[in-house]
Amino acid sequence: MHVFVTGASGWIGSAVTDELLAHGHKVVGLARSDEAAAALEAKGATAHRGDLDDVEGLAAAASAAEGVIHLAFKHDFSDYAGAGRSEHGAVQRMLDVLEGSGRPFLLASGLASGVTGRPLTEDDPSPFHGADSMRGGSENLALSYAERGVRPVALRFSPTVHGMGDHGFTARLAQIAKEHGTAGYIGDGSTRWAAVHRSDAARLVRLALEKAPAGSRVHAVGETGIPSRDIAAALGAYLGVPAASVAPEDAEAHFGWIGAFFGMDITASNDATRALLGWTPTGPTLLEDIAAGAYAVRD
Q: Which of 30, 15, 140 is nearest to 84 (CA)?
């Protein structure tokens, strides 16, 4: 299949690109820079220069493809609302050109929801609607096109997609632990994060492209929920610093912007995804990756 991938040179996207190419798919990847374009070309993919603000360029690339995997997002926490509106506009334009084609449109989403007291399931709808909501309400926007001749699939990624070279949330927690000399967790550390290894996430995306039906929600979840105190303890053990509680009222001062995320309880099951796609996570766990040095901090 000829697939247009946004975010193709990113942490998840580069693994997805490798997975697609290894299974005979042709990849055109969105590249914002010469460096990203060169990296894609070196893999055997084709680079499409542009960014998420170039909605007509995105539409042209989507129209020319047999399928779209939208993984890019503006992670601008100084204007997160603006990033959501940009996401909404980009997704809307690509979906419009795919309308009536029957082609797959997979988009990255998250596990944040209003569900409490149990893990989120694939049957639970996203509570976010409209351009001004989280991530621009893009999950519900995309899934609405199942009735308009598109095969949309929501890829719900764990808050930590981990592995060697990860520079995301867990890497930031490691950096903060190094800076403070303490691996902190908030309150009693009972809040949890779902997690998935990068290789498992990439394989899930490829399987979803090949066989997930229209309107599916799939969970890139290898571990349902790891307590934040266990994450802190593992980081502390590797970095040689103690793990300690941070009072909720001090979380912002200690952790900065990531404190709000680390204090969230984000758990999810993967039972329906495993059954639907025949997907079984096989990569290392998050704590195994931490112990193996995936989050070593350079002085």
A: 140
The CB density around residue 106, as the number of other CB atoms within 10 Å, is 26
Q: How far is CA 151 from CA 107, 209, 210, in A?
A: 11, 9, 11
State how far the Cα of 42 lies from the Cα of 157, in Å rounded to an integer.
27
Whose tokens are 């493809």? That residue is 65
Residue 244 β-bridge partners:
184
CA pair distance 100, 151, nearest whole angstrom: 10
In angstroms, rounded to a whole number, what is the distance separating the alpha carbons of residues 257 and 64? 39
The H or E element spanning position 277 is helix 271-277
Tell me if 251 sits within 8 A of 193, measured CB to CB.
no
Token readout for 222 is: 């290898």
Name the β-bridge partners of 195.
160, 223
Give residue 275's identity as a one-letter amino acid code: A
**CA distance readout (Å), 95 to 3, 53, 54, 65, 261:** 14, 15, 15, 12, 30
0.70 exceeded by the pTM?
A: yes
Tell me the per-residue pLDDT of 76-94, one tens digit each, with 9 for 90 and over. Answer: 667 778 888 999 999 999 9
